[in-house]
Design goal:
By secondary structure, the protein is mostly helical. The protein has one domain. Helix content is about 85%, strand content about 0%. Helix 6 packs antiparallel against helix 8 and helix 7 packs across helix 8. It is globular and about 55 Å long. The model has no long low-confidence stretch (mean pLDDT about 90).
């Protein structure tokens, strides 16, 4: 495969991922009509009426507001052209992103994980996702403070991959609906594979890059 072909495929994949992220953000915004006030007949809130106002809402509402924002900010912050052209804004938005992830998205996701719809295995998957996200953004922040910017970019790529699991899990859910899969096991595995498989993919990509640099 030639270099031009590889670059074209990479550009197509990046565009597709961006469009998927934007679609999920748009769908989330549209879904606010089912969340404010809460409609317990809607897909996500179905069956949560008994405990929704007993503390779950304090995690749910911050999560559905901050989550889409971090997806959008991440798209901007991962842009090499944006970073090079507006480095000051990259740093400012990076602080906002790290603050939202650490102080809002991770704690709220952690709390919501305990109320996973498909039982303890799904709960552990979502709680693990929250912990992994906190670890990556913390390591990315630390590397930036130490001015190890190459390391910083790698950690923040991992962080965004974990945030992107919100897109992947909806994509998997869509596949399940099209395929007519209604079994609980399918949605349980999605709480794990939606972030573990993309994270493995990113690690392989970073390994490939290190190998190329080593060869050069």
């Amino acid at each position: 495969m030639g270099i031009q072909t590889t670059r074209l495929i990479s550009a197509i994949l990046r565009t597709a991922l961006v469009l998927l992220a934007l679609k999920v953000v748009l769908v989330t915004f549209i879904s606010y009509r089912d969340y404010m006030p809460p409609n317990f007949d809607s897909d996500f809130l179905a069956g949560r009426q008994s405990y929704f106002w007993q503390g779950y809402h304090w995690a749910f509402y911050p999560h559905i507001v901050a989550g889409p924002v971090t997806l959008l900010l991440g798209l901007v912050l991962l842009s090499e052209s944006f970073r090079r052209r507006w480095p000051l804004w990259h740093r400012r938005l990076g602080r906002v992103q790290a603050g939202l992830v650490l102080l809002v998205v991770v704690p709220s996701g952690f709390v919501m994980g305990f109320r996973a719809a498909f039982g303890p295995i799904a709960a552990v998957g979502l709680i693990g996702l929250a912990i992994a996200t906190a670890a990556t953004v913390t390591m990315g922040w630390r590397a930036a403070v130490q001015r190890r910017f190459d390391v910083h970019r790698k950690w923040m790529l991992r962080c965004y991959t974990l945030l992107f699991s919100a897109v992947v899990i909806r994509f998997l859910g869509g596949i399940g609906q099209v395929a007519g899969v209604q079994a609980d096991w399918y949605y349980i595995q999605a709480t794990w594979t939606s972030w573990i498989i993309p994270l493995i993919g990113v690690e392989l990509l970073l390994l490939r890059r290190r190998h190329r640099i080593g060869v050069r």
